[in-house]
Amino acid sequence: MRVEDISLEELKTLANIIAKYVKSYDLNFIYLNGDLGTGKTTFTKYFCENFSVEPSQISSPTFSIVNVYNGVRTIYHVDLYRIGDIDEVFYVLEENFEDKEGIFIIEWSDLFKEYFTEKGIKINFYHKDEFLRDIDVITDLRSLEEDLRRWDCEREKV
């Protein structure tokens, strides 16, 4: 499902809706893809607030590869942009994936599609201009799609 013309501020509502489903359906994986500066880390900040993680703790894991945030559930924020090959992905993430209660937010997951086969929610971010982006949310949860459609219709009325 595509939601168009989303501002950075509106990412908060989107993140809150998705967090509700992660909690309700015990999902552990969120896959974020999109060019630099499209809002992946901002989305992550808003998402993590739903799990009692202070937004000031959230930063892009571009150089650290994995940031770990402790809240109601442990959140692993992973950035694969600088990873060279699938063996490196496995080496970096192997011990983290043993946390069955953790939530994994994987930026640039499309670089290693064959590795990330766990059920989750995929979100693709597309730059429109300096202030707006389009977002595709790919999920098999029909109720999530319905909530997103309702929210999108409410946005259009404003």
From TrEMBL:
Q: Which GO terms describe its molecular function?
A: ATP binding; metal ion binding
Quote a single Gene Ontology cellular component term: cytoplasm
User: Pfam families under this entry?
Assistant: TsaE (PF02367)
**Highest taxon, organism lineage:** Bacteria
Which keywords annotate this record? ATP-binding, Cytoplasm, Magnesium, Metal-binding, Nucleotide-binding, tRNA processing
User: Has UniProt tagged this entry with the keyword Nucleotide-binding?
Assistant: yes
| InterPro entries registered for this protein in UniProt | P-loop_NTPase (IPR027417), T6A_TsaE (IPR003442)
Where is the protein localized? Answer: Cytoplasm
Single biological process term from Gene Ontology? tRNA threonylcarbamoyladenosine modification
What's the main place this protein lives?
cytoplasm
Q: Which family does it belong to?
A: Belongs to the TsaE family.
Q: What is this protein called?
A: tRNA threonylcarbamoyladenosine biosynthesis protein TsaE
UniProt source species: Thermosipho melanesiensis (strain DSM 12029 / CIP 104789 / BI429)
